[in-house]
Amino acid sequence: QEAIRLNLVTRGLSIPVYLTHAGDDRLFVIEKQGRIRIIRNGILSATPYLNIVSKVNSRGNEQGLLGLAFHPDYKKNGLFYVNYSAQGAGNTIVAEYKVRPNDSERADSLSERILLNIPQPFTNHNGGCMHFGMDGYLYIGMGDGGSGGDPQNLSQNPRSLLGKMLRIDVDTSSSYRIPDSNPYKSSATYLPEIWASGLRNPWRFSFDRLTGDMWIGDV
Length: 219
Description:
It is a single chain. This protein has 219 residues and is mostly beta strands. 2% of the residues lie in helices and 39% in strands. It has one helix at 74-77; strands spanning 16-20, 26-31, 35-40, 43-44, 50-51, 65-70, 79-85, 92-100, 103-118, 130-132, 138-141, 164-168, 194-197, 202-207, 214-218. The strands form four sheets. Strands 1, 2, 3, 4 and 5 form a five-stranded antiparallel sheet that branches. The longest helix is centred in the middle third of the chain and has 4 residues, at 74-77. It is globular. It starts with 15 loop residues before the first strand and ends with a strand.
């Protein structure tokens, strides 16, 4: 293989944990404390795209603002989704936000619409990654609740959203809809949001752009 070379993109970030894009020439970087920053042509914007530090509990090593996913029609509807540990008990919050009208560099911090509020028994194994699949649904990686060795057996508990990969349809007037093709939509045993179970901490995952296969990185 050719030699690997590192190139400095920018300076001045504080605990960056994720980087993505919205289909244009900008890079969006998550800072763990609760900010999303924009990089364009190597220049880091001084003003955050979104600042929700007051909402985010980032005290634990694995807590904070952890995930960001732009809606497939972001250029038209301005919607994006974040995953963060909430102040107080550290519940996982999955929320929708919207970019400001006539200002593509700033999100409306008052536009929050909470889709999921998931209790967390411990501070670690929060997962946090989110992606829209080729099917247009939002996939959410949830850790097993933390501690070590999943002491509450939540990953195998069909009535818990922890230790799972979730799949929801956000294109609805309600908070979200369960896709008809979700494997447990009609189950009396499993929660309908569950798409896959038995996970430890899917900290990051992505989809193969050719096959659609999901590749999961367990922390």
